[in-house]
Amino acid sequence: MLVVDVEASGVEYQKCSIISVGALDLSHPERQLYEECRIWDGAHIEPGATAVHGQSDAAITDPSKQSEADLTHTFLAFAEGLDDRTLAGQNVSFDRDFLKAAAARAGHTNWPFAHRTIDTHTLCYMHMVKRGLTPPFDPVKKHSALNLDAVLAYCGIPEEPKPHNALTGAKSHAEVISRLLYDKKLLPEFELFAIPWIS
Fold first, then answer.
1. 96-110 core/surface letters (b: 16 or more CB in 10 A; e: else)
2. What is the pTM of this model?
3. Which in 3, 29, 125, 130 has the greatest CB count within 10 A?
C-alpha cells in the first residue's frame, strides 16, 4: 500500500498545481519520500490555500525549485519499486486526481495506479460502527463529520501540526491505517500514543 499526501495550490486538480508530495510504503515504512516543487506556469492559487499548506506565493513559484513534472516523475519512480501500489490516505481521491493530472501535464502516459483506493475516512467509519459507536455527523451539511482530526483523535494520535506538511500527513495516514486494520503501531514518532481500543 502506498500512503500518500499531496499539498496543492488549491482544490481543483485541473486548475491548480501540486506544491509537495509525501509518501511512504506501508509494508516498509522506513521507505519514505518528500518532494516540493514550484507550481506549473499559469496554475491557479486559491486565496485560502496558504493557510492550509503554509507556503507563501513566492515559495510555491520559486524558479529554483523543481517543476511539478519533475516532482511527478520522482514520485512515479518511487512507486515503481513497491509490491503494492494501492494508493491510501485521508480523502485519497484528492491526492490520486492531483497526481494523475500532474502526470498528464508532464506527458507521462503510462499511469500505473488503479482507480480503487483505500480511504482512512471509510476505514475509521467502519471501525467505529463495528464497535457500536456512532461516527460524527454534520447535521447542517448532512454528511459525515469524520475529518482527519477526528480520525486521528479516534486512533489516539495528536492532530497533525498546522500548517500541513505532506510528509507528516502521509505518516499520520499510515499510522491510522496500521491501527485501524491491524491494531498495531507503525512509526516511532507515534510509539508513545496508545491505541485507545486496546487495553
1. bebbbbbbebbebee
2. 0.94
3. 3
CATH number at 85 reads 3.30.420.10
Residue with cell 513559484: 61
Rounded alpha-carbon distances, angstroms, from residue 168 to 14, 16, 45, 122, 132: 25, 22, 22, 20, 30
Overall number of domains in the chain: 1
CA dihedral 186, 192, 197, 198 (to 10 degrees): 80
Please answer whether residues 3 and 170 qualify as being in contact, where contact means their C-beta atoms are separated by less than 8 angstroms.
Answer: yes
Q: How far apart are CA 187 and CA 168, in angstroms?
A: 11
Instruction: Take residue 148 and report the three cell numbers written for it.
Output: 482527519
Residues 154-174, mean pLDDT to the nearest whole number = 93
Distances (CA, A) of 180 to 22, 38, 162, 198: 21, 35, 24, 11
Would you give the DSSP letter of residue 44? B
Q: How far apart are CA 177 and CA 188, in angstroms?
A: 15
Cell of 102: 500532474
Domain around 121: 2-190
- Burial class of 143 by CB neighbour count within 10 A (0 to 12, 13 to 18, 19+): exposed
